[in-house]
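re the bet — no i am not wrong, look at it urself. input seq straight from the record:
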Amino acid sequence: MRNVDFAPLYRSSVGFDRLFDMLENASRGEQKSGGYPPYNIETLDKDRYQITIAVAGFAEDELEIHSESNKLVVRGERKNKDDDKNYLYQGIAARNFERTFELADHVKVTGASLKNGLLMIDLLREIPEAMQPRKISIN
C-alpha cells in the first residue's frame, strides 16, 4: 500500500480538514481491520442508504451499533468462545471486530436488523429546510 502525503493539500485549502482526515484514515483503515467482516454499502434511492455487514455466528446481543456525530461504529464481541471444540478445519471467522464508517453531514441512522447472518443498517440523509434549494421569484 502506498502512503500519500496530504500536507500540500492542507497548506493550500481552508475548511477541508475533515475531508483530508477521512482520506488519511481510509488509506490506513484497510490495513488495520484486514477487511473483516465483509460489508456492502448500497444506495436505495436519492437519500436512503443501507450498509450490510456479514456477521455470521454473532447473536444480536453480541453486536453493538453506535452513531456519534459523523461516525458510525459497529462492534462485534463473541461471548460464547468455542475453546472446547476440536476443529479439523475452521473457515468461519469468529473473532471480535470493530468497523467504523464516516457519515456525511445530515446522514442519520434510522434502524438496524439482523437476518440470516447479515446485519443491515438503514441510513437517511435529511437536509434541513434552510439548506435545501429554493426557487426565487422574479418581480
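see?? The two ends are 58 Å apart (CA to CA). told u. also Residues 106 and 131 are 11 Å apart (CA to CA). so pay up
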